Amino acid sequence: MSKVPLTVRGAENLRAELTQLKQVERPRVIQAIAEARAHGDLKENAEYHAAREQQVLSRAGSRISSPSSPMPR
User: Fold this and answer.
1) According to the model, what pLDDT value does residue 55 have?
2) In terms of C-beta density within 10 A (0-12 exposed, 13-18 middle, 19 or more buried), how is residue 48 classed?
3) Which of 33, 49, 50, 71 has fewest C-beta within 10 Å?
4) Which residues lie closer than 8 Å to 62 by C-beta, 6 or more apart?
5) Which regions of the chain are under pLDDT 50?
């Protein structure tokens, strides 16, 4: 594992981003997927596909590769 220099402010920003992802974004996407599933057939359910795409984009757009991995010090 390579070490990457990180300032205190940078670490705080990453922690804030992680908190936002865990407490706001992820639950919102999960709720959207659950609501879309409740509408029935997933093959023709545009809401479901949009929610799944949102889930993928939120993961891909995150600078945090693994929310459960320890943060560098």
Assistant:
1) 83
2) buried
3) 71
4) 17, 21
5) 67, 72-73
The helix (run of H) or strand (run of E) holding residue 16 is helix 8-20
CA 48 to chain centroid, in Å, comes to: 17
What is the structure's pLDDT at 73? Answer: 45
d(C-alpha 36, C-alpha 30), whole Å:
10
* Placement of tokens 């993928």 in the chain: 56
What would be the CATH architecture of the domain defined by 27-62?
A: Orthogonal Bundle (1.10)
Whether the Cβ atoms of residue 18 and residue 72 lie closer than 8 Å to each other = no
Ranges of each domain in the chain: 27-62
